[in-house]
Design a protein that fits this description.
- With 158 residues, the protein is mostly helical.
- It has six helices and three strands.
- It has a three-stranded antiparallel sheet with strand order 1-3-2.
- Helix 1 (12-43) packs antiparallel against helix 5 (109-125) and helix 3 crosses helix 4.
- The longest helix is centred in the first third of the chain and has 32 residues, at 12-43.
- It is elongated, with a radius of gyration of 19 Å.
Length: 158
């Protein structure tokens, strides 16, 4: 339980409703993840690859240490992920102009195109794609009521 959160015991008549809502949310997440995995397979990238590519898409060139922190691993371990993406031409390493000892990881045009293709596909094929703009805003507001707002500059994660 998060600090400061309160656990409430629902009234008996709400238990069934809460169970149904929880089940529907899990189905929506499961369907979204299935579509995500199919889309990633078509582009021959992993979830970790997408997290890195999306971060670079949204934030620009990032030091290797920042990529390691993003995926929660040691910089020596993230080298393998960066190598794979670089071999595919999706990212490139650059010297940091302010410190030539630091290597920045940057998205290439092919990498940007891949992120855009994946996002366009997911936006049109996951369960949220069935909602109109007003429903999406309502869903966002309900999710914020449930889990709180996204922190500023929150990294995109799976």
């Amino acid at each position: 339980m998060a600090p400061g959160s309160v656990t409430r015991k629902p009234a008996p008549d709400l238990v069934g409703l809460a169970d149904e809502v929880s089940h529907l949310m899990m189905r929506a997440v499961s369907q979204s993840r299935s579509e995500l995995h199919a889309t990633l397979a078509e582009h021959a990238i992993s979830e970790q690859h997408l997290v890195v590519l999306r971060h670079l898409h949204d934030n620009g060139p990032t030091p290797m240490r920042g990529i390691a922190d993003l995926v929660g691993t040691d910089p020596s371990t993230v080298t393998h992920t960066v190598d794979k993406l670089e071999q595919r031409g999706l990212i490139e390493r650059r010297a940091d102009p302010s410190d030539r000892r630091v290597k920045l990881v940057a998205l290439t045009a092919a990498g940007r195109s891949t992120v855009d293709e994946v996002w366009t596909r997911l936006a049109g094929s996951t369960p949220v794609a069935r909602l109109d703009p007003a429903q999406l805003r309502s869903m966002r507001d309900l999710l914020i009521a449930m889990v709180g707002p996204l922190p500023p500059n929150a990294p995109w994660t799976l």
